[in-house]
Design brief:
The complex is a heterotrimer of chains A (about 280), B (about 300) and C (about 425). Chain A is mainly α and about 280 residues long. Helices cover about 75% and strands about 0% of the residues of chain A. The longest helix of chain C has 19 residues, at about 10-25. Classes of the chains: A mainly alpha (about 280), B mainly alpha (about 300), C alpha/beta (about 425).
C-alpha cells in the first residue's frame, strides 16, 4: 500500500484493468439475478435484455412449488450447523495442542492436514459409503454430518492453529506465575482471546458444509432428506430441460446465506487461512 | 513446507512454556478430533486402497473376492480412462495457470491505492462464497445459446451468431475451464494479497528511489516476497482443480461425448452409476499416485530453482 | 474481540441436540399396524405428476391399512440414485423406471421377481413383446406400462406447400425416401433453414431404436450366453442417413446435434426446421408452447425393409427386493395399471399404454394432437435390442454416446465409429461378464 510514483498513464491502465476485473467478477451474478426476475416470455426471447422488461416474482413462487426448497434449506441448515459446531468443538483442543506442543503426534497431525487436501474424494467416498451403509447411516443427516465434520477438520485445524499461535504464550505464562491453575488460565486468559477466531472458523466450516455437493449427492437418497445444492440440481431436469426462471430464482436464494456470512467473516478468514503461511 | 516451519516455530515456544507434566492432558485434548479422523478419514482411505484389489460391485448376488491387480490391468487398457485423465490434466493446468496470473494481477491492483478498491474486494468474494452448484447453474445461464448473455453480447458486437458453448465438442472444455478460473480466482487472490501485504515497504521504496521500473521492482522485490505463497497456492490449486467435481457435474455432466469428463466424474460414475466399486477404487489409487509424483517433481524443481536464485 | 464469554459448552450442547434431532427423525415410522409403502415416481410433466398423485390418493382412501407415500424422483439421476439406494438399503418399495435401466438391478438381485406376484389380469392385458422388455433370465423384474414411439413432428404449413408425399403408419417413408424428401424440402426453404433437426444430445437410444427398422442389432448373444458387439450392414443405415443429412446434403441442422429435444422447439416454431424427430410425448410441450396459429402434425418415423419396427424401452414399475411388503406393493401396481388408470397415466404423460384394453380407449385415438398416428404405431414397437445386456448403460454413456456424436458431427468416419463401438465396447462388456 505504498504511494509509489506511478505515471498518469500507468494509473489509467490500472483503473482500466480494475474495471475489467469488476465486470468479469460481477456479470455472471448480475445475469443470474436478472434471469430470476424475468417472465417466461422474456426467457424464451432470442434477444434477452440485461434488465427484465416486466419483472416478476412468479419464478420464485414456481421454484417453491416445484421443489421442496424450504425443507432442503432446513436440511442444509441442520447439517451445516451441526457439522460446524462439532468440528470446532473437537478441533479447538487439538489445534491448541498442535500449536503449543511439539511431538510426533503434532507432526503427524500436521502432515495429515496437508495430505488430506490431496485426497481425491472418490477414494474416500467409496469406502465411506460402504462403512456408513453398515452403520445404517446412508440417507441420514447424521451420516452426512459425520462426514462433514471430518472433511472440515483439516481446514478448521489449519485456521485454529494460526489463531492459537496469535495468542502470545507469554500471557499464559504470566497467569501461571500468578498462581492460576492451568484450566483457569485456559478459560480466563486464552479462551476470550481465541473466541473470535473460533467463531470465524465455525462460520467458515458452516459455509463449506452449506455449499457442499458431492457427499450430499452420494449419501442422501430421498428428496425429503436432501440438502439445498442437491435439490437445486433437480431443476436441471431430464434431457437438459431446464426451466430457466425458477432455476435462477432458487439458485439466487440459495446463495444469500453464504454471501451474508462471508461478508461478515471475510477479513478473519483471510487472516486465519494465512496465519500459518505468512507469519512464519 | 509451510507447515514444517510452522511446526518448528511452535515447537520452540512449547518447549519454553510447558513442562513435561501434561502429556496425558495432551492426549485428552487431541482424542476428540483424532478418533473421527482415524475412523472416518484414515480408515476409509486404507479400506479404499484395499478395495482396489477386489472385484467389489454393487448388487448382492456375488460375494466380493480378491482379484489381485486385475483392476489395474484393466485400467491400463481402458483408453477412456486415460482420455479422461488427459482431460483432467488439461483442465487442471488450464485452470490453475490463468487463475494464478489473473489473481496475481488483481492482487497487485488491490494492493494499490485505487478508488473502487473496496468494490472489487467485495465482489471478489462472491465466487468464493457461492455454492459450486450455483456457480455452475449461473454460468449455464450465461452460456445458454438462446437466452444467454454471452451469445447476445456477441450478436450485439457483430461477432457472429454465437455458439452452443457447453454442448459443442470443441467449445465445451474451454467453456468449462473459464468457469473454473472464475470460481477459483478469489481464494488465490486473497492468498496472494496477504503475501503482498507482507512485503516490506522499505524495500519497495528503496527500489523506487533507485529508479527501478515497475517490472524490475516486481521482479526484485515483490516476487521473491510472495514466492512461497505463490508456490503453495498453485500446488494446492492444482490438486483441488484436478479433483473438481460439482462444477462440471452441473455444467455438462461430462458431456458432450465425454469431452469434459474429468477423472473424478469418471470414477464417480464408475462407482455410483455402474456400481463397479473395486474398479473405481483402483482409479482413485492411480490418480493419487500420478498426481503425487507430478507434484513432487514440481515442488522439488521449484524449490531448487529458489535456492539458485 | 467483542465476544467475551467462552461458548464451548453451549456449542457442544447444541451440537449434541442437533445430532439427536436428526437421529430421531431418521427412525422408522411409528408402528400402528399400518403398512407404509414408498412409491418413487419419475413423472415430471405437470399433468403426469398430477395423475400419479391423484391415483395414490385414491388408493390411500380405499386402503387405509396400506398407505402409499408419493416420492418424487428425477429421470436424469435415477440410475445413480437407485444404485446407491439399493446399496444403502434405502430404496423405495415401488420403483418407477425404464426397462433399459433395469438389467443391472435385476441381475444384481435388487429387484423382486414379479412372476408370482402379479395377477393374471395384468399378465394377460400386456402383450408378450412388452413383457420381453422386462424379462431378465427367468424372472420378470418390472411391469412395462407406458411407451412412446419416435415420431416426426412436422410443420404442416411447410410440408403442405412443398407438395411431398406425406407418410402414414401404413405407408411410411423408407430411409432413402426420407433422405430424398429432406434434401428436396431444404432447397425450397431458403438459407439457414433445414428440413430436419435431429436433437441428438442422447444419440444412442434413438439410433439403436430406429435402427431396428433397418435390421440393426449391434448386440449378439453367443453360444456361451455372453453378449458381444458386432457392427453389420443393417447397423449402418440409420447412422449413415443422419450423417449424410448433416454432412453431405446439409438438409439437417448441425447446431441441434448437441441439443435435447426441447431445445429444438423454438427453432421449430420459428419455421427454421420443418421436422423434428422426437419422442411421442413431446407433443405435450408443443401443444403448450406453440405460438398462436402454428399448425403441426405427427408423422411416423421412416421405416426399413422390416416395416416401421422400432425398439422401445417402456417405462416400468418394479418392486424392491428389500421391500418388506412385496405383495401389497404388487397390489398397488395392479391398481395403478387398471385399464382406466393406465389411460389416465398415458394421457398425463402423452404416451401410449402397453395394456391392450387401455390402448383401445377412444380417447387415445383422436386425430387431435396426433394421438391416432402414434396409436397406430404401437403394435410395431418391440424390445430395444440392447437392454437386457449387462454393462449396456456404461457402454452407452462412455463408448457409444461420444462415438455417435462425433460421427454425426462429421469428426470421424464410419470405419472409426465401427471400431470404437465394437472394440472399446467389448472391453466394457467383458468386465461385466466375467
Amino acid at each position: 500500500m505504498t504511494a509509489l510514483r506511478t505515471g498518469r498513464a500507468g494509473r489509467a491502465g490500472q483503473y482500466a484493468a480494475l474495471l475489467g476485473y469488476l465486470v468479469l467478477l460481477a456479470f455472471p451474478f448480475l445475469w443470474l439475478i436478472s434471469t430470476a426476475f424475468k417472465p417466461p416470455r422474456e426467457l424464451g426471447s432470442l434477444h434477452p435484455t440485461w434488465i427484465p422488461v416486466n419483472p416478476t416474482l412468479a419464478n420464485f413462487r414456481q421454484a417453491f412449488d416445484e421443489q421442496p426448497l424450504l425443507q432442503a434449506a432446513g436440511n442444509s441448515l441442520i447439517a451445516a450447523l451441526a457439522a460446524a459446531l462439532i468440528a470446532v468443538v473437537i478441533a479447538t483442543p487439538m489445534a491448541y495442542t498442535m500449536a503449543r506442543r511439539r511431538g510426533r503426534l503434532t507432526t503427524a497431525a500436521t502432515g495429515w492436514v496437508v495430505v488430506s487436501q490431496a485426497f481425491p474424494f472418490v477414494l474416500v467416498i467409496i469406502p465411506l459409503f460402504l462403512v456408513l451403509k453398515n452403520l445404517q447411516l446412508i440417507n441420514t443427516l447424521s451420516g452426512l454430518i459425520m462426514v462433514y465434520v471430518v472433511w472440515s477438520l483439516p481446514f478448521a485445524l489449519w485456521m485454529l492453529v494460526g489463531y492459537v499461535r496469535a495468542v502470545p504464550g507469554e500471557l499464559e505464562e504470566a497467569a501461571a506465575v500468578d498462581g492460576a491453575s492451568r484450566l483457569r488460565t485456559l478459560v480466563s486468559v486464552t479462551a476470550p482471546l481465541l473466541a473470535p477466531g473460533i467463531v470465524a472458523t465455525a462460520l467458515f466450516a458452516f459455509i463449506t458444509a452449506w455449499n457442499e455437493f458431492f457427499f450430499a449427492l452420494v449419501l442422501l437418497k430421498t428428496p425429503e432428506k436432501q440438502t439445498l445444492p442437491v435439490v437445486l440440481t433437480h431443476f436441471l431436469g431430464a434431457e437438459g430441460v431446464a426451466d430457466l426462471g425458477p432455476l435462477a430464482a432458487a439458485a439466487f436464494l440459495a446463495t444469500i446465506p453464504s454471501l451474508v456470512i462471508f461478508a461478515i467473516i471475510q477479513k478473519r478468514i483471510t487472516g486465519g487461512m494465512l496465519a500459518g503461511a505468512v507469519k512464519s | 513446507m509451510i507447515s514444517a516451519t510452522a511446526t518448528a516455530r511452535s515447537g520452540r515456544k512449547a518447549a519454553r512454556s510447558t513442562g513435561g507434566t501434561v502429556d496425558h492432558g495432551a492426549w485428552f485434548l487431541v482424542l476428540p478430533a483424532l478418533i473421527p479422523i482415524l475412523v472416518l478419514s484414515v480408515g476409509p482411505l486404507l479400506y479404499g486402497i484395499s478395495l482396489a484389489f477386489t472385484d467389489a460391485q454393487a448388487g448382492r448376488t456375488e460375494p466380493t473376492e480378491w482379484v489381485g491387480t486385475l483392476n489395474f490391468q484393466d485400467l491400463l487398457h481402458d483408453t477412456l480412462f486415460w482420455e479422461s485423465f488427459r482431460i483432467g490434466l488439461l483442465w487442471a493446468v488450464g485452470v490453475t495457470v490463468p487463475q494464478f496470473l489473473l489473481a496475481l494481477g488483481l492482487a497487485l491492483l488491490l494492493d494499490q491505492r485505487l478508488r473502487l478498491r473496496w468494490l472489487a474486494r467485495a465482489l471478489a468474494i462472491v465466487p468464493w462464497a457461492m455454492p459450486e452448484v450455483v456457480v455452475g447453474i449461473m454460468w449455464r445461464l450465461v452460456y445458454n445459446p438462446d437466452a444467454g448473455i454471452l451469445n447476445e453480447t456477441l450478436r450485439d458486437l457483430g461477432l457472429g451468431s454465437g455458439q452452443d458453448w457447453l454442448t459443442g465438442l470443441a467449445t465445451a472444455l474451454p467453456a468449462v475451464i473459464v468457469v473454473g478460473i472464475w470460481a477459483g480466482m478469489p481464494q488465490t487472490t486473497v492468498a496472494l494479497l496477504a503475501g503482498l501485504q507482507n512485503t516490506p515497504h522499505e524495500l519497495h521504496e528503496a527500489a523506487a528511489l533507485d529508479g527501478a521500473g515497475a517490472w524490475r521492482r516486481f521482479r526484485t522485490v515483490t516476487w521473491p516476497a510472495i514466492r512461497p505463497v505463490a508456490l503453495a497456492v498453485t500446488a494446492l490449486n492444482f490438486i483441488w482443480n484436478f479433483n473438481a467435481f460439482a462444477l462440471v457435474y452441473v455444467l455438462t455432466s461430462g458431456g458432450p461425448g465425454g469431452r469434459t469428463r474429468l477423472p473424478m466424474l469418471f470414477a464417480y460414475e464408475q462407482a455410483f452409476r455402474y456400481g463397479q466399486f473395486g474398479y473405481a477404487a483402483a482409479m482413485g489409487c492411480v490418480m493419487v499416485a500420478l498426481i503425487s509424483v507430478m507434484l513432487a517433481f514440481y515442488l522439488v524443481g521449484r524449490l531448487k530453482g529458489g535456492e539458485d536464485a | 474481540m467483542r465476544t467475551r464469554r467462552p461458548r464451548g459448552r453451549l456449542l457442544a450442547a447444541a451440537a449434541a441436540l442437533a445430532l439427536l434431532m436428526t437421529g430421531c427423525s431418521d427412525g422408522p415410522a411409528r408402528d400402528d399396524g399400518t403398512i407404509r409403502l414408498r412409491f418413487q415416481s419419475l413423472a415430471w410433466q405437470q399433468e403426469s405428476v398430477d395423475a400419479n398423485k391423484e391415483l395414490v390418493e385414491e388408493w390411500n382412501a380405499a386402503h387405509p391399512d396400506v398407505q402409499v407415500e408419493y416420492v418424487q424422483g428425477s429421470w436424469d439421476s435415477v440410475h445413480d440414485q437407485l444404485l446407491t439406494s439399493f446399496e444403502g438399503g434405502e430404496a423405495p418399495d415401488i420403483i418407477h423406471d425404464a426397462s433399459d435401466d433395469l438389467a443391472d438391478f435385476a441381475y444384481g438381485g435388487c429387484l423382486a421377481d414379479l412372476t408370482e406376484l402379479l395377477p393374471e389380469r395384468l399378465r394377460a392385458d400386456i402383450p408378450r413383446q412388452s413383457w420381453e422388455t422386462t424379462t431378465f433370465g427367468d424372472g420378470v423384474y418390472g411391469v412395462p406400462f407406458l411407451q412412446e414411439p419416435r415420431v416426426l413432428i412436422a410443420n404442416t404449413e411447410i410440408l403442405e406447400t412443398s407438395g411431398v408425399r406425406l407418410p402414414t403408419a401404413e405407408r411410411p417413408w423408407s430411409w432413402e425416401e426420407f433422405r430424398q424428401v429432406t434434401k428436396d424440402l431444404t432447397k425450397t426453404m431458403g438459407k439457414g433453414k433445414y428440413a430436419v433437426a435431429w436433437p441428438l444430445k442422447e444419440p444412442v437410444s434413438v439410433t439403436l431404436n430406429l435402427g431396428l427398422s433397418a435390421g440393426g442389432r449391434l448386440f449378439h448373444r453367443g453360444q456361451d450366453g455372453k453378449v458381444t458387439i458386432d457392427f453389420r450392414d443393417g447397423d449402418g443405415v440409420v447412422p449413415g442417413t443422419i450423417h449424410d443429412q448433416v454432412n453431405v446434403d446439409r438438409s439437417a441442422s448441425r447446431s441441434t446435434l448437441g441439443m435435447g429435444g426441447s431445445d429444438t422447439l423454438p427453432g421449430f416454431f420459428g419455421g427454421k426446421y420443418a421436422m423434428v424427430p422426437l419422442g411421442f410425448s413431446y407433443r405435450q410441450q408443443i401443444a403448450q408452447q406453440a405460438p398462436e396459429g402454428f399448425r403441426w402434425t405427427v408423422l411416423p418415423a421412416p421405416a426399413g425393409p422390416d416395416g416401421p419396427a422400432q425398439g422401445v424401452s417402456p417405462q416400468t414399475l418394479s418392486v424392491a427386493q428389500d421391500s418388506a411388503h412385496k405383495k401389497e406393493a404388487a397390489q398397488f401396481i395392479d391398481f395403478m395399471l387398471r385399464p382406466q388408470n393406465m389411460v389416465r397415466l398415458a394421457k398425463g404423460d402423452w404416451m401410449l399404454p402397453t395394456g391392450t384394453q387401455a390402448l383401445g380407449d377412444p380417447a387415445l385415438h383422436t386425430e387431435k394432437d396426433g394421438w391416432a398416428t402414434g396409436a397406430d404405431l404401437a403394435r410395431h414397437l418391440r424390445s430395444a435390442p440392447a437392454q437386457a445386456v449387462r454393462g449396456y448403460p456404461e457402454w452407452k454413456d462412455k463408448v457409444a454416446t461420444p462415438a455417435y456424436q462425433e460421427f454425426y458431427s462429421g469428426a470421424i468416419d464410419e470405419k472409426e465409429l465401427k471400431e470404437r463401438l465394437v472394440k472399446d465396447g467389448n472391453l466394457v462388456l467383458a468386465r461385466y461378464q466375467r
